[in-house]
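FAQ: What does a multi-protein file look like?

Like this. Sequence, then tokens, then the next protein.
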Amino acid sequence: MSEPSHVEGIAQMSKLEGKVAVVTGASKGIGAAIAKALAKDGAAVVVNYASSKAGADAVVAAIIEAGGRAVAVQADVSKAEQAKGLIDAAAQQFGRLDVLVNNSGVYEFAAIEEVTEEHYRRLFDINVLGALLATRAAARHLGEGGSIINISSVVTDVNMPTSSVYTGTKAALNGISGVLANELAPRKIRVNTVSPGYVVTEGTHTAGIAGSEMEAGLVAQTPLGRAGQPDDIARVVAFLASDDARWVTGEVINASGGVR
């Protein structure tokens, strides 16, 4: 008897069938990969973007072409009304909400002599306040089995020079995740954190890191010996979103190739 064939595509992947997910900051990079991975596993996905409509539309088009369901919704999650509008749009479009991935974030490095109020507030507003506001809005819709996944960074472990504010935002996010895991546990809503290491994205290309000596140094420090790819992070997130992770909450999972 021949082995059954395995056809690639959304129809063959059903771990998230019937679920609805919101991914913030999903127009490119890690967020885009997460949106596609959740859709591949069967979820209907709201692809959030702040400014890159073209990028979000391209992600939605790729998901639909593969047989999935997705819509793009513009919102600056650091603004309370817009964060609420994003979550409400998911419920209105697909009738429910099961998964929230707080991926929106900015990374800017500055030596301590160059840290400004503007730099601090921009990073904390988007990286921390945005996650809080989106989670506050989502908590009204999430029921038993709901999953919240916050995207942090391995910088909280490595103490990288010139990253004091950025590292501070991710350390805050880690702490908030732990609190919310306990706070929402009575409602059977899980909260976990994924901390990527160095990942090649559009942002690293724009910043001149990809292909540079800095990238070579980061890879040299990575035990698995390569740079991360967006899908390396997306598959971890998809696991945490699914019922396979039903007994996992309050965890910080490093997806860093061994960097710690």
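And here is the next protein:
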Amino acid sequence: MKNRYIIDFDSTFTQVEALDELVKISLKGHPDKDKVLKQIEDYTNAAMDGRMSFTDSLRERVKLLGATEEHLHKLVKVLKKKVSSSFSRNKKFFEKHADEVFIVSGGFKEFITPVVSDYKILAENIYANTFEFDAKGTIVGYDTTNPLSQEGGKVKLLKQLKWEGNLYGIGDGYSDFQLKESGLIKKFFAYTENISRSSVVKNADHVLPSFDEFLYVNNLPMAISYPKNRILCLCIGDITEEAIAILKKDGFSIRHKASFEEKYVGDVGMMLLGKGETIKFEKLKRATTLKTIGYLGNAKDKLDLELCTKMGIAVFDDRKDNVNNGLFIPKRMADFINSGASYLSCNFPNIQLTQQKKAHRLIHIHHNVPGIMAQINSVMADHGINILAQYLKTNEQIGYVISDVNTEYDKKVIKALKKIEHTIKFRLLY
């Protein structure tokens, strides 16, 4: 049966509410700009939370716009820069599944179509409202016969379309949840990358902190190998809000704790430790999913760096107690997870990287013994893999190999690389 992915636009495909952005443009220099902005924001939230009918909310917001066609052109330029990060990095998915992706929104085609068309989403798959203009090009209203301009509009539209197959709804608002409530879609995914509405989240089949998560749970091709929202990052001890914000903004699942609690030992992927914090050898040894540690200060005598190296855990610290280490260290940790770069690690061979386009990045950490590189390349040759770029550095204990390969390969190659003797950790990055 055909799959159809029904995606909302405002605060889902894009990071913002388009009408809020439009009024910022149309009221630039207006003495009551802030007051009108607040009114529009209140109407938006009331509808999204289910406290006001969509029809009433839309009517009141359009009344306040005072916008023209020229303002809409400016808005489109803004929105193209405000596409949600996880949608942007999964552009290939939309290109490959163009006939399955549908934008269904209470927003307006005049600004939605030029934004999503960059992602090869078909014009006939965009369902939204349309503005009405006067002779001077000023917005004076909208097509009130369009079901999407009415309360429960998305439900009304899908009833008219009578789509068959597996229908999946992705959105941040109450109107998106109504599709699930009506029984017209198979699953509703509450999208929270930009905003989380408790009234919507509590009724969702699944919560999506990113579009990567949707692709992952539905076994669909994605730009990265594993959603960052599933990587548990423990911040322990005296950590500033600024440092935590850097990691949170990158999409990692953050827990700020006073100590390394036993319940997290088996699942932790990243750790940021405040100055003076220590981790016992026995507990660290059992943290087998841990990939990187950041230490806000000098990690010597606080961590067993030799054990970290043997386990393939990259450690970033600041032995000079730089005043900016609260910002510098989290960035290095995130870069290691995102690109594999180990630059300025205190225990790993240092590699600086550039991102290869149209490639997969494979990371292989192994004991520093002869012949590993030859085995890696032999596996790739046996599977007809074209290597675009390759990086190798070693220290006394480990070898660190990063291979950028062409996008066509059999998944059996991953199993073969993991089985190479002396492998410590293997990771498919993207």
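Q: Is there any per-entry metadata?
A: Some entries carry free-text notes. For the entry above: The chain has a mean pLDDT of 93.
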